[in-house]
């Protein structure tokens, strides 16, 4: 049975020949594609009526948990049946629908936890060592990104996590002590991580997770793993080796965590804090060449996430995204969605 035979056909637009391999979630694909890879097809010339009708078609075909989400840029529909997950979204500016047979187990419903919480969020840009001359010596590095967000219920939302060279034994001890002090959870208690979000599959964004979970395996309760890494081979074998170590670590040390592949148009709420996915690598793929990732810079596979706090403040998390992404989203995402109170400057202020 082919990838899309168990998914109802999209009811409008013109189907495009060719399938994009959007990559797995936790499966290791460094030696080739896997059975867990998400697959994506295109439909051009589609309308909002078409995507709305698709929600009904999913329900008629026995798909459960059917949800719709719409903003100024896109209209998305999702559902699941017998272990098959489907996600479809219309890019309004282009009339293009991306129909995704999603990775096994990945579900929008696994994301949201909007239970009431009395506290407020606090954001910390955690200090990672910076080499002012960009020497990249055996003991210094100029990259690394690690944001720690305390949600209103005292759980954590973590973003990325630095380079291997920034995760010495002393640095890990410092991170661990800081997280204990930040949450107030005493030694012996588990610190709740409501979600660990990784912007992209570069080593200078994942190392802290690998080393914290391996060094302190009983200290954390990791509830959700959130990212959208592309297929290693679709992007011409440019995922870093550290990203495969990350997947191995998550499989071994967080087996109960919900692992969700993020797609444009997804929205989820954790302890009153809202997150909106505004861009993934899937947006860059073009119907003219649907099997290839077209951008030169691998950093443009960074998922872009907008965060809205309980009080209405907004933060834009850009990861390492670069100019090719900027040119695309300027055409497809209205300025009203990009407006933010705080912006994480992309790619460590390079470029």
How would you portray this structure in words?
The protein has helices spanning 48-60, 169-183, 207-215, 241-253, 323-332, 335-338, and strands at 14-23, 38-44, 64-70, 74-81, 84-91, 96-101, 122-125, 146-150, 156-160, 191-197, 220-222, 224-227, 258-261, 267-270, 273-279, 304-308, 314-317, 342-343. The mean pLDDT is 93. It folds into two domains: 14-104, Double Stranded RNA Binding Domain (2-Layer Sandwich), CATH 3.30.160; 122-349, Ribonuclease Z/Hydroxyacylglutathione hydrolase-like (Metallo-beta-lactamase, Chain A, 4-Layer Sandwich). It has 351 residues and is α/β, with parallel strands linked by helices. It is built from six helices and 18 strands. Helix 3 packs parallel to helix 4.
Short description:
This protein has helices at 48-60, 169-183, 207-215, 241-253, 323-332, 335-338; strands at residues 14-23, 38-44, 64-70, 74-81, 84-91, 96-101, 122-125, 146-150, 156-160, 191-197, 220-222, 224-227, 258-261, 267-270, 273-279, 304-308, 314-317, 342-343. It is an alpha/beta fold.
Question: How is the topology of this model organized?
Answer:
Blueprint: E1 14-23, E2 38-44, H1 48-60, E3 64-70, E4 74-81, E5 84-91, E6 96-101, E7 122-125, E8 146-150, E9 156-160, H2 169-183, E10 191-197, H3 207-215, E11 220-222, E12 224-227, H4 241-253, E13 258-261, E14 267-270, E15 273-279, E16 304-308, E17 314-317, H5 323-332, H6 335-338, E18 342-343
Parallel strand pairs: 9-10, 10-11, 10-12, 12-13, 17-18
Antiparallel strand pairs: 1-2, 2-6, 3-4, 4-5, 5-6, 7-8, 8-9, 14-15, 15-16, 16-17
């Amino acid at each position: 049975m082919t990838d899309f035979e168990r998914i109802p056909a999209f009811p409008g637009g013109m189907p495009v020949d060719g399938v994009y391999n959007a990559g797995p979630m936790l499966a290791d694909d460094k030696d080739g594609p896997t059975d867990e890879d998400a697959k994506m097809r295109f439909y051009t010339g589609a309308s909002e009526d078409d995507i709305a009708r698709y929600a009904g078609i999913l329900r008629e075909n026995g798909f459960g948990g059917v949800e719709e989400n719409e903003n100024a840029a896109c209209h998305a529909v999702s559902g699941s049946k017998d272990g098959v997950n489907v996600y479809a979204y219309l890019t309004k500016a282009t009339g293009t629908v991306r129909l995704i047979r999603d990775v096994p187990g990945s579900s929008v419903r696994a994301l949201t936890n909007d239970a009431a919480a009395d506290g407020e969020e606090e954001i910390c840009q955690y200090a990672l060592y910076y080499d002012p001359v960009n020497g990249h010596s055996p003991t210094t590095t100029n990259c690394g990104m690690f944001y720690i967000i305390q949600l209103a219920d005292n759980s954590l939302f973590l973003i990325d996590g630095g380079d291997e060279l920034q995760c010495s034994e002393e640095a890990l001890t410092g991170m661990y002590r800081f997280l204990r002090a930040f949450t107030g959870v005493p030694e012996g208690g588990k610190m709740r991580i409501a979600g660990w979000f990784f912007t992209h599959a570069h080593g200078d964004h994942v190392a802290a997770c690998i080393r914290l979970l391996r060094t302190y395996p009983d200290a954390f309760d990791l509830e959700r793993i959130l990212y959208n890494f592309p297929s290693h081979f679709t992007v011409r074998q440019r995922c870093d080796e550290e990203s495969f170590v990350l997947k191995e670590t998550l499989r071994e040390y967080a087996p109960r965590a919900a692992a969700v592949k993020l797609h444009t148009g997804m929205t989820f709420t954790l302890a009153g804090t809202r997150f909106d996915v505004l861009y993934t690598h899937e947006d860059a793929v073009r119907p003219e060449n649907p099997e290839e990732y077209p951008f030169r810079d691998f950093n443009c596979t960074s998922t872009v996430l907008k965060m809205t706090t309980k009080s209405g403040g907004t933060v834009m998390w850009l990861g390492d995204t670069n100019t090719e992404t900027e040119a695309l989203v300027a055409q497809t995402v209205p300025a009203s969605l990009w407006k933010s109170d705080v912006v994480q400057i992309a790619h460590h202020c390079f470029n």
